[in-house]
Amino acid sequence: MKTVCAAIIREKGMILVSNRPASKAAAGKWEFPGGKVEPGESFGDCIKREMLEELALEVIPLDVVFDIIHHYPAGAIRLVFLRCLRKNGSEPVAKEGQEFRWIPLKELRELDFLEADKALCELLIPPEDGNSL
Hints:
The chain has 133 residues and is an alpha+beta fold. The chain contains two helices and eight strands. The chain has a four-stranded mixed β-sheet with strand order 5-1-7-6, with helices on both faces. Strands 2, 3, 4 and 8 form a four-stranded antiparallel β-sheet that branches. The protein starts with a strand and ends in a 9-residue tail after the last helix.
């Protein structure tokens, strides 16, 4: 089973999401940006590398907020979500032809997310009482 890390970057009530580029499986689906963990790589090192490769974004990984195993038709993946901070002055740039957006948490349901990411979306969307992860 492959392990994938994804970044949860929240700022001022917004969260960073990106879509899958045309060159990748599930093109056009939305996801939290990240990618595959390389052999011997820590989750923190993975997310720093992936964010630079995909979005030219420097991040500081903080902690794991959600960890899920999801079964796709092609096989299972372990998806580890890390809360990250964006380094001062670092701005995202789409390096793989993908789109990215800063959106309010309440709008997460409006995007067509990858199945593995949907469980986290439900945890992040603020309930009526305003409490969320």
